[in-house]
Write a structure and sequence with these properties.
Blueprint: H1 3-30, H2 38-58, H3 62-66, H4 71-98
Helix pairs in contact: 1-2, 1-4, 2-4
Length: 100
């Protein structure tokens, strides 16, 4: 195993863990009793600062303000999926040039 693969795997695992944290946050936010749980409070402290600029940007659009669900969450999930694909393609590109 080379160092490039290890870096790719670490980044991939971190993005996956972030996706799990997003899912936990979303589920807990829909259940009122769970909003006071330590898991929700921890996940909110990590995710809310990242969601805040996305929400601020999306609130410029009238259709986003009228939407009954939080679209910023969906945008953040799409961004993490894009980043995961980007990391994979970057790994493939670099491993081709550097060699395994």
């Amino acid at each position: 195993m080379n160092a490039l693969f290890i870096i790719y795997r670490v980044l991939s695992i971190l993005l996956y863990a972030f996706d799990v944290l997003l899912l936990i946050n979303a589920i807990c936010s829909w259940v009122p009793e769970w909003r006071m749980s330590r898991v929700y409070i921890l996940s909110s402290r990590i995710i809310d600062p990242i969601l805040r600029p996305i929400r601020k940007f999306m609130w410029r659009f009238d259709w986003a303000r009228r939407c009954p669900i939080d679209l910023s969450f969906i945008v953040l999930v799409l961004i993490t999926r894009f980043l995961d694909g980007f990391v994979w393609r970057l790994y493939l590109l670099l491993s081709t040039f550097i060699g395994n």
